[in-house]
Each structure stands twice: as C-alpha cells, then as structure tokens.
C-alpha cells in the first residue's frame, strides 16, 4: 500500500497549491470499517468495469490489448480465472460524460471492481475544479450507494511533461489545475473509501527521463506507457484482494 490517511495528503496538496508550485503528490490508500474488498473465492466471476476517457479507451496504444485496462483484465484473471471485463471508456470524455453516459450502463452490469480515470478533458475545456468535484462526488456516491464494487481511481498525471503541453503558454496554469483536480480526487476518495493510485508523481519523475512512455501523438501513453500505468494501477487493485486469495509468488 502507498500510504494511509486523507488529511496529511490533503494538507500537502493544499500547501503545494498555495505555494504556487507543482509539488509532490503522495495519495493515500483509504481504509476503515467501510473499506470494500474483492471476493475471497478465487473462482468468483469478478466483473471489472472501466470508466473514463481516451486513456481508458486506449488512445495511443497499438491495439486494444495493449491499453492499461486490458492489461489489468489479464492480470486480474491470474487471480480470478473467470474474471470478465467491460471497458466503457470513450475518447474525449469528461467527468460529466462519465456521470451521464457511462455510469448508468455500469450500474446494470453489477461490477465487483471499477476503475475511474477522468479529468484531463475537464481541464483542457476549462471546467472549474468546483464543477469537476460536483461530478466526481456524484460518480463516487453512485458507485457507493448502488454497487458493491471496489473502486480504484488514479490521480491525473502531470500533463505539462508531455510534448503537447511542455513549453505551452499556459503550461504553468495547466500544472496548477492538475494539482487542484487531484486535490478533488483525494478529498472525494476519502469521503467514499476509494482506493487512490498516484500517477502524478511517477509521471513527473519518469516521463522526462523516458520519453518513450508517450505515444507519437505527444500526449497519450504508448504501449510502454500503458504497461507502466497498468503496473501502478494493479497496486491499488491488489490492495483490495484478500491476502489469502492472492496466488503464491508474483501475478503474471
């Protein structure tokens, strides 16, 4: 697990924003009496549903099998051999789109596991953090109230390290919005006992050193980038798998 406790992380994020700097973001892994787990029975046909935008759909990957959602589905089947996957991600989706179009379809699927990755389109369309928080709160509240699913949400990577935005006239403002939106995700994750995976700090550290993590479009992950994304997301999923259910040795 990455760490525990919402308040220290919330304070860190807030301090970074007030200081006007793109500081480190170290999200919590939430815990407590309301924390959900995936089934103990490894034969359970776990239903995994992915919500979100083009990164969920797999823009930048050479094939659907190479996006991070498909990679997670494969890894999930190393624990739950009958696991199923439905990818509802749509190119260009905002949090409002997830709420209005993807969430109703998800509820009908009765998922055991949900991943959520959304926010960059909200930022580039200049939606406010307040509008984003309203939608994220509604999404997570619906998942809490109308499903029994374990929910894993990732922080938004640092968009300013990608070729599309590095050196852009609005680079600094964009970086601040990423921090503010990630603050929303941390706060709402704490309110709804949602697992949080940090993609922000790894992106800041790794993309400048490994530009091959980004695809030819200068923005979306490459196959290599999605492999890394999946590895980080798996840590959040694995944290909600009962220890006795995990196979001996590393998952393949």
Count of the separate structural domains = 1
Question: Can you give the mean pLDDT?
Answer: 88
Let me know the number of strands.
5
**Helix fraction?**
40-55%
CATH homologous superfamily designation = SGNH hydrolase
Task: Give the helices and strands as they follow along the chain.
Answer: HEHHEHEHHEHEHH
Output the CATH class name: Alpha Beta
The third-level CATH topology is: Rossmann fold
Strand order of the largest sheet: 2-1-3-4-5
Strand content: 5-15%
What's the shape? globular
The CATH architecture name reads 3-Layer(aba) Sandwich
Instruction: Give the class from helix and strand content and strand pairing.
Output: alpha/beta
What is the tally of helical segments? 9
Seen as an oligomer or otherwise, the chain set is single chain
Main beta sheet: 5 strands, parallel
Q: What's the Cα radius of gyration?
A: 17 Å
Low-confidence stretches: 1-33
Terminal CA distance = 19 Å
């Amino acid at each position: 697990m990455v760490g525990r406790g919402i308040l220290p992380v919330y304070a860190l994020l807030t301090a970074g924003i007030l200081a006007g700097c793109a500081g480190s973001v170290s999200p919590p892994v939430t815990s407590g009496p309301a924390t959900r787990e995936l089934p103990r029975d490894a034969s359970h046909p776990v239903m995994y549903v992915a919500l979100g935008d083009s990164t969920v759909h797999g823009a930048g990957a050479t094939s659907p099998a190479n996006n991070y959602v498909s990679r997670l589905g494969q890894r999930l089947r190393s624990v739950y051999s009958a696991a199923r996957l439905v990818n509802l991600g749509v190119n260009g989706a905002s949090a409002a789109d997830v709420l209005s179009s993807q969430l109703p379809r998800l509820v009908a699927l009765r998922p055991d596991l949900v991943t959520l990755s959304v926010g960059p389109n909200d930022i580039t369309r200049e939606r406010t953090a307040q509008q984003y928080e309203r939608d994220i709160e509604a999404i997570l509240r619906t998942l809490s109230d109308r499903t029994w699913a374990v929910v894993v949400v990732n922080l938004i990577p640092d968009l300013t390290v990608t070729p599309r935005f590095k050196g852009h006239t609005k680079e600094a403002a964009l970086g601040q919005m990423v921090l503010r939106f990630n603050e929303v995700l941390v706060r709402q994750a704490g309110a709804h006992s949602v697992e949080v995976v940090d993609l922000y700090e790894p992106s800041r550290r790794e993309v400048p050193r490994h530009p091959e993590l980004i695809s030819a479009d200068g923005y979306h992950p490459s196959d290599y980038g999605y492999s890394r994304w999946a590895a980080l997301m798996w840590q959040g999923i694995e944290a909600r798998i009962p220890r006795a259910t995990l196979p001996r040795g590393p998952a393949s």
